[in-house]
Amino acid sequence: ERVERAEREARLWDWVDALPERQREVLLAVKQEGLSYKEIAASLGVSERTVASHLRRAVSSLRRAAMKVYLFFFG
């Protein structure tokens, strides 16, 4: 169980590392640092709408990567 969890977590971090830089920055700022869109927008010099767009794209990319793995094993 622990080994499987560690492998899943490592795979997830590989996918996060593969994201475009801005998407990765926004994702980590929201999920790890708990920053608001307003705070992230101010620090990156972009609009809150752009922050939301980067986050949406990052999450979508991660979902697609996870779906590929799922379909490989169970599809």
Give a quick rundown of the structure.
The chain has 75 residues and is mostly helical. Helices cover 84% and strands 0% of the residues. The protein starts with a helix and ends with a helix.
Features:
75 residues, mainly alpha, 4 helices, 0% strand
What fraction of the residues are assigned to beta strands by DSSP? under 5%
Number of helices: 4
- Rg estimate, integer Å: 14 Å
The largest β sheet comes out as: none
| Percent helix range | over 70%
Query: Kindly state the mean pLDDT as a whole number?
Result: 94
> Could you give the order of the helices and strands?
HHHH
Straight-line N-to-C gap: 23 Å
Oligomeric organization of the protein chains: single chain
Q: What best-fitting shape do the alpha-carbon axes yield?
A: elongated
How many distinct beta strands?
A: 0
Low-confidence stretches: none
Find the structural class using helix and strand composition: mainly alpha
